[in-house]
Amino acid sequence: MAKCDVCGNDYDKAFTLTAAGRTHTFDSFECASTRWRRPAPTAAARVVGHGVEQCGRIFCCAHCAKKAGASGLKDRA
Predict the structure, then answer these.
(1) Contact, 64 vs 47, CB < 8 A?
(2) Rounded distance, CA 43 to CA 32, Å?
(3) Interstrand relation of 57-59 and 52-54 (parallel, antiparallel or unpaired)
(4) 45 by DSSP, 3-state: which?
(5) By percentage, how much of the chain surpasses pLDDT 90?
(6) Do 7 and 44 touch, CB atoms closer than 8 A?
């Protein structure tokens, strides 16, 4: 598996993008889009796609939700 440069998630479907001679690895479109727009993303501010939710809190992915203290969420539920 490859580790996302933005959120640190190890994901079996990660992908790489190369621009200006630099290659970055991402686990989702959300992480890729935040990397190109600003260098220090915060999940709570930028949910571009599917997201996950628990108790009224929305996260970009289950990995970031777990880092914030949520439990039992899965990205591909």
Answers:
(1) no
(2) 12
(3) antiparallel
(4) helix
(5) 22
(6) no
The residue type found at 31 is C
The span from the CA of 34 to the CA of 6, in Å, is 8
pLDDT in tens, 12-43: 889 999 988 999 999 888 788 777 665 444 55
In the chain, the largest separation of any two C-alpha atoms, in whole Å, equals: 42
**Which amino acid appears at position 25 of this protein?**
T
Residue 28: C-alpha distances to residues 25, 56, 61, 65 (Å): 9, 22, 9, 15
Alpha-helical (H) ranges within 13-73 are 29-37, 62-67
Six-digit token string for 9: 């998630």
Sequence-ordered list of residues with C-beta below 8 angstroms from that of 20, at least 6 positions apart, any chain: none
> Whole-angstrom distance between the N-terminal and C-terminal Cα of the chain?
20
Cα 27 to Cα 19: distance, rounded to the nearest angstrom: 17
